């Protein structure tokens, strides 16, 4: 029973962090039709900035700068690189390929700087734990769940209640009709990229915090697990991204938690499990859990 | 407040406009027309004549279709509109209702209406309320359906929503692209009444139609576009009496003209093969269900 609660909590914490990254995928896809393969390297950049800045600025200051800088860089990538031919959704496949190039450049430079080091982010939780009844939870995981819940709630409110959110959803439904209403497509898109970058930087903190050993050059690859989460949810649905992330997080935690009982499947099943779940769900619901209409861009 | 430069009674002037798609396709050649303040002007023509292209040139969406205004000028009052983006047109008070309604199907009726004001940025709540009251006055059904997804409305209701959405930007000139398309005759009649009412409230209308009977009954002036050029221009009454228009757009044979009854609001394009609706028309006829 304790093991079950333990796995549930770490699954939720993992899922909450994946949700931050998956939400970034979804916001970008909805706004521009692009699959952003550079999301992982943006995450790594955010983590790296916190790691190098926290001595001078303190953790909170470093985090603020990292979130802001990563968001601005993501916006700049979209505005200056991807949108060179205008905010034309028909160019999305080409722009998707460009994000692979951006990813390679960023990852190469960051790997060169990080090398084989394990960087501490100087987060306030350290290796502290809290006892909740029979289970012991790392404080960093509680923080991950709490912060993600607040941030995701805020992002959903942005979608629902702000002119930007309405513009984004209208443009995702019908780009030309939205343009006729006076929606500035390129600006709406760029802001979506900024948001996704900021979310990635925030996620980096929790991915590098205890019980993870710290930030390493491969931390960005963890973002790839948010990819099946976003696809699972339906790619264009923020609610789907959240649900998909929790599914993936829980799957991973449980498979890892019961690894010893699953040894017939071999080592490292936990890493494969998210993709197995994604494929299983897509066999039943090809458009994802919430993707009935939204995933189709015409 | 982001509005057009103050001018009391602006009119839309399209002067000798050429439009090209890509490098080679000439869609409009030397097209001129004027929509006076508070007037209704209709533009008739078959499929592919360039009617929608002209509206795109005015509303600034040509670029989305890789088209450009290569010659001539378009201005609304003192505001130049050729080569500008759609935001400029909306802010100048010129709003287009696209062909085929194009409501945001997954958004609620309420959100669709809210999206109509997006181009104007932040507005005083009183202004928004005024625009909304006007829309609900014209289309009470939209007030009842506020929370429903727009995609679940009938075709006629969607057309009302598309017009209502455009009116949320409080336009002084409304560009209507085939509002009768795919609607049942009864609903076409209703839309015609609404256009008349919107105009009576002081909004000018540029009406693009294939349903010439309806369009000519509403408009003050009319133009006939054929393969990118204006063929006929004049008052709507005069044009309705010319043989060519009667034959091609009102669906009358020459023998019948002595009887003199226009087909009116029914779909009056039966004898003109190039004017019939395309079989692939994606919109469904469910208007007055």
Automatic annotation (TrEMBL), chain A:
It is found in: Cell membrane. It is a multi-pass membrane protein. The chain crosses the membrane at residues 12-29, 34-51, 57-77, 142-161, 190-210, 222-248, 272-292. GO terms for biological process: amino acid transport. GO terms for molecular function: transmembrane transporter activity. Keywords: Amino-acid transport, Cell membrane, Membrane, Transmembrane, Transmembrane helix, Transport. One of its GO terms (cellular component) is plasma membrane. Its main location: membrane. It comes from the Bacteria. Pfam families: BPD_transp_2. InterPro entries: ABC_transp_permease (IPR001851), BCAA_transport_permease (IPR052157). PANTHER family: ABC TRANSPORTER PERMEASE PROTEIN, BRANCHED-CHAIN AMINO ACID TRANSPORT SYSTEM PERMEASE PROTEIN LIVH. Belongs to the binding-protein-dependent transport system permease family. LivHM subfamily. This is Branched-chain amino acid ABC transporter permease.
From TrEMBL, chain B:
Residues 250-289 are annotated as: Disordered. It comes from the Bacteria. Residues 12-252 form the ABC transporter domain. InterPro entries: AAA+_ATPase (IPR003593), ABC_transporter-like_ATP-bd (IPR003439), ABC_transporter-like_CS (IPR017871), BCAA_Transport_ATP-bd_LivF (IPR052156), P-loop_NTPase (IPR027417). SUPFAM superfamilies: P-loop containing nucleoside triphosphate hydrolases. GO terms for biological process: L-amino acid transport. Signal peptide: none annotated. Residues 256-281 have a biased composition (Low complexity). GO terms for molecular function: ATP binding; ATP hydrolysis activity; branched-chain amino acid transmembrane transporter activity. Keywords: Amino-acid transport, ATP-binding, Nucleotide-binding, Transport. PROSITE patterns: ABC_TRANSPORTER_1, ABC_TRANSPORTER_2. Pfam families: ABC_tran (PF00005). This is ABC transporter ATP-binding protein.
């Amino acid at each position: 029973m304790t093991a079950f609660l333990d796995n549930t909590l770490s699954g939720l914490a993992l899922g909450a962090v994946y949700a931050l990254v998956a939400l970034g995928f979804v916001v970008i896809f909805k706004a521009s039709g692009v699959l952003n393969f550079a999301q992982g390297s943006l995450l790594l950049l955010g983590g790296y900035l916190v790691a190098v800045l926290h001595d001078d600025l303190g953790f909170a200051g470093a985090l603020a700068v990292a979130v802001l800088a990563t968001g601005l860089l993501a916006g700049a990538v979209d505005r200056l690189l991807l949108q060179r031919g205008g905010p034309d959704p028909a160019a999305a496949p080409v722009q998707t390929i460009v994000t692979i190039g951006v990813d390679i450049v960023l990852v190469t430079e960051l790997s060169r700087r990080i090398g084989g080091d394990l960087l501490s982010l100087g987060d306030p939780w350290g290796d502290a734990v809290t006892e909740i009844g029979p289970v012991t939870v790392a404080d960093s995981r509680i923080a991950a769940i709490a912060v993600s819940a607040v941030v995701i709630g805020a992002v959903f409110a942005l979608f629902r209640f702000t002119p930007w959110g309405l513009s984004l959803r209208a443009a995702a439904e019908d780009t030309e009709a939205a343009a006729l209403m006076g929606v500035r497509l390129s600006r709406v898109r760029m802001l979506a990229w900024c948001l996704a970058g900021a979310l990635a930087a925030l996620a980096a903190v929790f991915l590098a915090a205890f019980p993870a050993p710290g930030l390493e050059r491969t931390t960005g690859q963890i973002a790839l697990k948010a990819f099946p989460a976003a696809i699972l949810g339906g790619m264009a649905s923020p609610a789907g991204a959240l649900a998909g992330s929790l599914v993936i997080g829980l799957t991973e935690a449980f498979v890892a938690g019961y690894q010893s009982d699953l040894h017939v499947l071999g080592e490292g099943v936990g890493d494969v499990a998210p993709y197995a779940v994604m494929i299983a769900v897509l066999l039943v619901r090809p458009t994802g859990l919430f993707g009935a209409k939204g995933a189709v861009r015409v | 407040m982001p509005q057009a430069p103050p001018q009391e009674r602006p009119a839309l002037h399209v002067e000798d406009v050429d439009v090209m798609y890509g490098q080679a396709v000439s869609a409009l050649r030397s097209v001129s027309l004027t929509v006076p303040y508070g007037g209704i002007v209709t533009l008739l023509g078959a499929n592919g004549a360039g009617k929608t292209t002209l509206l795109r040139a005015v509303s600034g969406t040509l670029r989305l279709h890789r088209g450009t205004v290569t010659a001539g000028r378009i201005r609304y009052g003192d505001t130049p509109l050729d080569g500008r983006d759609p935001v400029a047109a909306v802010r100048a008070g010129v709003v287009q209702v696209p062909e085929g309604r194009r409501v945001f199907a997954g958004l609620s009726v309420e959100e669709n209406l809210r999206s109509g004001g997006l181009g104007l940025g932040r507005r005083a709540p009183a202004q928004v309320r005024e625009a909304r009251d006007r829309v609900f006055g014209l289309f009470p059904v939209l007030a009842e359906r506020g929370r429903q997804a727009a995609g679940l409305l009938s075709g006629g209701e969607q057309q009302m929503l598309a017009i209502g959405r455009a009116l949320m930007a409080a336009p002084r000139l409304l560009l209507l692209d085939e509002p009768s398309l795919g609607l049942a005759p009864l609903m076409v009649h209703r839309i015609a009444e609404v256009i008349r009412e919107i105009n009576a409230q002081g909004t000018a209308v540029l009406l693009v139609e294939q349903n010439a009977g309806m369009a000519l009954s509403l408009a003050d002036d009319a133009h006939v576009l054929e393969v990118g050029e204006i063929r006929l221009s004049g008052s709507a009454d005069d044009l309705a009496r010319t043989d060519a228009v009667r034959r091609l757009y009102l669906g009358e044979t020459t023998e019948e003209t002595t009887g003199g009854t226009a087909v009116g609001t029914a779909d009056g394009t039966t004898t003109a093969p190039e004017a019939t609706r395309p079989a692939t028309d994606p919109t469904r006829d469910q208007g007055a269900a």
